[in-house]
Amino acid sequence: MGAQTETVDTQGMNYLVSLPRRVVTLYVPLAAFLVVLLFPFYWMVITTFKPNEELLSREGNPFWVINPTLAHIKKLLFDTAYPDWLWNTMLVSVVATFLSLLCSVLGAYAIERLRFKGSRYVGVSIFLAYLVPPSILFIPLAKVVFEMGIFDTRLALILTYPTFLVPFCTWLLMGYFRSIPFELEECALIDGATRLQILVKIILPLAVPGLISAGIFAFTLSWNEFIYALTFISSSEVKTVPVGVITELVEGDVYHWGSLMAGALLGSLPVAVLYSFFVEYYVSGMTGAVKE
């Protein structure tokens, strides 16, 4: 049995030894995946550095820059309120993410660890709440925002973003909390620890990958959110990047493509950097969330 198993495993490992097989089964699909994945970013980069003459010309190579320029970046940074948009987006995303994680941790812990009757149905209802599209939720939320007197302020976005962040983060953390052994909590209860002490000193340190994974998702959703930011914000200096780039760099039927692509490129860098730093925690957090 051991010899047969070793033979089968060896044959499986030698499957890609042949160069034609590696090309067909590995290199060609990988190259196609990379082209599809990276081409939009490449297009944003070359459009950012193309002068208007090349952008509007029907001659030449559309996939390359002949005379690169920084005019579009200069226009974006100095002729628009893009630095303010970037700061607003960062501030709103960070505060909304931390607020949502706080609520999600408490909700997920209560549902998964306190074992009250009907906890499963509460968890499912929270996930179903996430499935309600923002295009429907923003109508009643608009009335609430106007009644509270926070229209056209960053606070309007900070308080409305958790309506779609909390359900998803709670569901994600529920799956990760479920993977933590109950024996640890029971031992702490025997030793006289309170529920809050157990949550802070035992559960949260063990759930760091899940917290980072939920935080990355919440930050990304907040950073890219468009409908709420378009509805609740009107002043240029309070807009976020997704709304500001679209509303300020499109004048009627005139599209400032160079500045638009520069804004999209610079706006995508913080999220890309965030993923690159925490990719290992992100993968382990997702694995723990779907373990059961």
Question: What general outline do the C-alpha atoms trace?
Answer: flat
Instruction: Tell me the number of helical segments per DSSP (H or I, 4 or more residues long).
Output: 15
Distance between the termini: 32 Å
**Spans where pLDDT lies below 50 across 5 or more residues:** 1-9
Major sheet size, sense and barrel closure:
2 strands, antiparallel
What fraction, in percent, of the residue positions are helical? over 70%
Alpha-beta classification: mainly alpha
Mean pLDDT: 84
Textual characterization of the structure:
The protein has helices at 2-13, 19-49, 52-56, 71-78, 82-113, 119-130, 134-148, 154-160, 162-178, 182-190, 195-206, 208-224, 227-232, 241-248, 257-289, and strands spanning 250-251, 254-255. It is mostly helical and 292 residues long. A two-stranded antiparallel ribbon has the order 1-2. The protein is flat, with a radius of gyration of 25 Å. Mean pLDDT is 84; it is low at 1-9.
Q: Topology, pairings included?
A:
Blueprint: H1 2-13, H2 19-49, H3 52-56, H4 71-78, H5 82-113, H6 119-130, H7 134-148, H8 154-160, H9 162-178, H10 182-190, H11 195-206, H12 208-224, H13 227-232, H14 241-248, E1 250-251, E2 254-255, H15 257-289
Antiparallel strand pairs: 1-2
Helix pairs in contact: 2-15, 4-15, 5-6, 5-8, 5-9, 5-12, 6-9, 9-12, 9-15, 10-11, 12-15, 14-15
Give a brief rundown of this model:
The protein has 292 residues and is mainly α. It has helices at 2-13, 19-49, 52-56, 71-78, 82-113, 119-130, 134-148, 154-160, 162-178, 182-190, 195-206, 208-224, 227-232, 241-248, 257-289; strands at 250-251, 254-255.
